[in-house]
Amino acid sequence: MFKKTMVILSASTLALAACGPKTETTNTADTTMMTNDGGAFDANSTATADANMTAPASGGQVFANTAAASDAFEIATSKLALDNSSSVAVKKYANQMIAAHTASTDKLKATTATLTPAITPDPTLNAEQQKILDGLKGKKGADFDAAYIAGQQTGHQETLDMLTAYQSTGDVPALKTFAKGLVPTVTAHLNMAKSLKA
Questions:
Q1: What's the alpha-carbon Rg for the chain, to the nearest Å?
Q2: Cα(154)–Cα(21) distance, rounded to whole angstroms?
Q3: Which of 172, 80, 167, 52 shows the shortest CA–CA distance to 121?
Q4: How far apart are CA 119 and CA 142, in angstroms?
Q5: What pLDDT is stored for residue 89 in this prediction?
Q6: Helix (H, G, I), strand (E, B) or coil at 132
Q7: Are 162 and 190 in contact (CB under 8 A)?
Q8: 8 A C-beta contact, residue 72 and residue 157
Q9: Where does the chain hold its CATH 1.20.1260.10 domain(s)?
């Protein structure tokens, strides 16, 4: 009986709303109904709550996005190094980073393509990465080299911390394996960055 009453009330309300003038008014009395147990049911507040609720990203999705953004950051900053650096050693390192992080991106995409439910890595840089990248664009020579090396050290340390944490506590076995496999590579990149001189 309650369901039939709700359907009839909803249909009546819609019919009246369609016939009336198009004004921006809200009448909460029209949307609040008494339930059989004496409580109130507000159709508007329930609809709004449902529309505003979005499922949080899974741990695997967050990890994939962070890893993809890390690769994108390393590639973008290293491409700048090829143009803006005055150091042969920095340019050599930059070429290695472009190759290694392109391979890492390909491996991440291949790994996530096999997962159910699907995970699609989003390589959007975080605010800190974007700030560093933007700052590098205006630098040349030794100034660029110093900023690039500092960015590489920070970026690789953060990536190493993220990989180490995920390989231990991650929620997607295939991504835990991916993380574990990258730890030695990222450790080597961090050590290389620490040895660079501006």
A1: 27
A2: 61
A3: 172
A4: 41
A5: 96
A6: helix
A7: no
A8: no
A9: 59-195
Sign (positive/negative) of CA torsion 82, 84, 89, 94?
negative
Closest by alpha carbon to 65, among 125, 130, 122? 122
Residue type (1 letter), 94: A
Q: Please name which of 122, 116, 106, 121 lies closest in space to residue 174, comparing C-alpha atoms.
A: 116
Residue 154 to residue 62: CA distance in whole angstroms = 20
Residue 66: closest CA among 178, 197, 192, 193: 178
Q: What is the pLDDT of residue 58?
A: 84
Residues of the chain with pLDDT under 50: 1-53
Q: How far is CA 174 from each of CA 46, 98, 130, 166, 168, rounded to the nearest angstrom?
A: 38, 24, 29, 11, 12
What pTM did the predictor assign?
A: 0.71
CA distance 11 to 17: 10
Angular region, 25: left φ>0, alpha ψ -120 to 50, beta rest: beta
37-69 exposure pattern, b = at least 16 Cβ within 10 A, e = fewer? eeeeeeeeeeeeeeeeeeeeeeebbbbbbbbbb
Q: What are phi and psi of 121, to 5 degrees?
A: -60, 135
- CATH of region 59-195: 1.20.1260.10
What are the pLDDT digits (tens) for 24-51? 444 444 444 344 444 443 434 444 444 4
